[in-house]
Amino acid sequence: MKVGFNMLLWTTHVTEEHFGLFDAIKKIGYDGVEIPIFEGEPAHFKKVGKAVKNAGLGCSSVCVIPDEAHNCISADASHRAGGLAHITWALECSAAVGSDVLCGPFYQPLGVFTGDAPTAEEKARCVEVHKQAADVAAKLGVKLGVEFLNRFEAYFLNTMADAAAHAKKVHKPSFGVLYDTFHANIEEKDPVGVITKYGDAINHIHISENDRGTPGEGHIDWPATFKAIRSIGYDDWLVVEAFGRALPALAAATRVWRDFFPSREHAYTEALKFIRQQWAAAA
Question: Which CATH class is domain 2-281?
Fold first, then answer.
């Protein structure tokens, strides 16, 4: 098991000014960081990856669909082509930074709704786009972990069952599901039970408290969650995702209107202690 921390606590685009954070995160005891792939080119991320490696860390990566022109479920073929191009770019940047898994809701733009459930046509379109993306991922040696989001952020994939069914249709070794405790807490009738039920589909995990604050300081059933994670034999990244108000655009997208922790240092320091403790206790 490897514990990482999502760099979105500080920035949507990691540059040299953030490299010092890698040493601080390593010193505390983390195994890696999750790098946002929201802008930039592979050459830039190669430099970021070198700094990550020099700090003695590994990394995963995360991306989103930026707009309708890159919508993988759109009826417009040019938009779907844009979606595939966007995921391909993110995979190339991920390979350059040294990421072993690119995760995120890479199917539709955030906060866009039709007022109805996803259609069979939308599902079929996305499967075809993700099949091609998974082939690109395999060639680059990067896995794809698709993330289901709560219904207030997206409508295409909202539950573990939705995401697992989609991954089954994509049917590629490089394609799996990201399980996020925050979204599961909102959408699942049994947030812990879906871990064991769909464990074969999970290839990445986000550890996020019910309020997006410091794990262990909210109401998620962490002992049961960690026992379930261990029961499926999962032994890969557990990435802490905690959001603050430092980045206005991200705060707006994630609906963060108040502070959920006293400081960023508190969030990443206490989160690691808690995860190590819970992981050991769940053995």
Answer: alpha beta
